[in-house]
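Hey, quick one: can you model this chain's 3D structure?
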Amino acid sequence: MGLTAAAPGHLLAARHEVAVAGDPAAAVCYYGSGISDALARGDQIRCPVLFHFGGEDPYIPLADAERVAAAAREQAGWECHIQSDGGHAFDNHDAPMFHRPEPAARAWQLTADFLARELQ
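Sure thing. Here's the predicted structure for all 120 residues.
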């Protein structure tokens, strides 16, 4: 199966939350609130996952993003990147108050590399 997207994004890859037949081939989550509180469900994820957070996000504490990063270091197939100069929704091109081009470009390159590697 190819890439799948659905809401809520931070639970998509958890097996019992997927609303499609089968597991997704990969999942990418940008600034997902609630992920740090759902880490105990990580064993339900059967695909590679890439998480992105902004280090200056006023809505998701840096400590929460760091918890996800620590969990990702322990899970095969998980990656987590914290853009130190990224705020919440830093890759939202439709919201000038949030969009930050430099961290967005870095995160997009990481995403493109991840998907190319995982969906080959």
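One thing worth noting: Residues 1-12 have pLDDT under 50 and may be disordered.
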